[in-house]
Write a structure and sequence with these properties.
Length: about 100
Amino acid sequence: MVLSRRWNKFWIGFVVGIILPTIIFLLIYLIGYSEASFVDFVKYSSLIRALPKILSLCIVPNLAVFYFFLNKEFWKSTKGIITATLLCTLAILAIKFFA
């Protein structure tokens, strides 16, 4: 019960939902494209229209965290993950259509 009170907070789900895709994006850069600078990687990905696709893949691990919080019945944390995922999705749509 103590664990549920500690982890069942909206802001925890929100922070995890924002930080996890960021870490995944950095890992994609470090593993596959570390010979180029980070800025060049982002510019080139944007130029070939791959940036929205890469960012979309970075959001997928949020699904695992969502189900973890859901199985533990951490309803507030689940809402945070959903909110963060929706904000990331809106950002990706903005990049796709306006960049």
